[in-house]
User: Fold this.
Amino acid sequence: MRYIDEYRDAEAVHKYAALLAKLVRRSWTLMEVCGGQTHAILRFGIDELLPPQITLLHGPGCPVCVTPLELIDKALEIAAQPNVIFTSFGDMLRVPGSHGDLLSCKARGADVRMVYSPLDALKLAQANPEKQVVFFAVGFETTAPANAMAVYQAHKLGITNFSILVSHVLVPPAIEAILSAEGNRVQAFLAAGHVCAVMGYTEYEPLARKYGVPFVVTGFEPLDIMQGVYMAVKQLEEGRAEVENQYARAVTREGNTHAIALIREVFEVVPRKWRGIGEIPASGLALRAGYAAFDAEKRFGVASYTAQESSECLSGLILQGAKKPNECPAFGTRCTPEHPLGATMVSSEGACAAYYRYRLHNVGQAEAT
Assistant:
C-alpha cells in the first residue's frame, strides 16, 4: 500500500539500526508519547533492534487510558438513564468503571451505540428528537476538532437534544509534568505525529529550551520510529535540544490553523485529572460558557462524581514511564484483556494491551523486522 509499505521496509529499518549503533556513545532514555507508537514498537520489534544503551519508556499517550475513573462512572450513569442514546468510539466500550463498563450497561438494556464520528451522533440527535443523544468526547488534540465541530453545528442548527461528555487532555502539559517530576529519567521525546498534524509543534519549542531535551515529531510506521529515535539520539550525542520533524509528510510547524481556531472557539483550557496520575494544570479542554448548554455533565447532574482508583493497578506508574507493564505483579494473571484492572489493558493504544498481545504469548515473533 502506497505511503505505508515504504515505511515498513525491513532493510531500511535495519540500515538505520546499524547507523544508530555506530552513533551512540552513551546511555540514553527516550519516551514515545503516543500509544499507537508503543504498539508499533512492540508489534514490529523496534525496541529489540536498538543498541543496549538506548531505553524506550512508554508515556501517557493513550487518551482512553488516562480518562479518569469518575468520567467512566459518569458515562455509565448517563447511559443508564431512560430516553438516552449514549454514543462513543469503540475503544471506550470496555474500559472498566467502578461497576462495569459501557458494554455491560448495554447488556442491561441501555441504548449504547458505537459511532465513527461525533457528527454521526449529531445525526442521531436530529433523527431522534424525543431522545437525548450524548457523545463521549475523549481524546487528545487529535479528536478535538471533530468534537468541536459537532458542538458548533449543534449550536448553529439549534439542536437541543445533543450533548457531549468531555474528557479532552493536552499533550504538552503532561510532558512538562513528567519533565518536572522528581526522579525523571526521560532525556528526549518522540512527539506524537497525529497530535502535531493538528496543533503543529510550536508548543514543544519552549519545553525543549526550558528542560534541555530534544523533541522529534515522529510517525507510526517502523521506519518512522527508527528514524525518530536516530534523530533524537543524534541530538543527544551532539549536545543539542531542539524540535525536529521526522513526520514532515503530514506535519507542519504551524499545524492545521483552521482546526486550531475551531478548537479555541468551542473549548477553553482547564485543569484536568488524568487517571492514575492526578490533576495536571492547564492540561484539558472544557466547553466555553457560550456552549455550556451542550455539557452532558451539567445536563445530567453528574459533575460532582468521584471515584477511587484500584490500588492494585499500576497504570499511573506505567503511564508516567516509571514502570513497564510486565513489571506489574498483576500483569497477565489478575489483569488480562478479559478481566482488566485498568484501561491500559483494554485500550487499543494501551501499553499493557500491547505487552499482553506482542510479548506475553509472542516473544521473539515480531512481524516485520
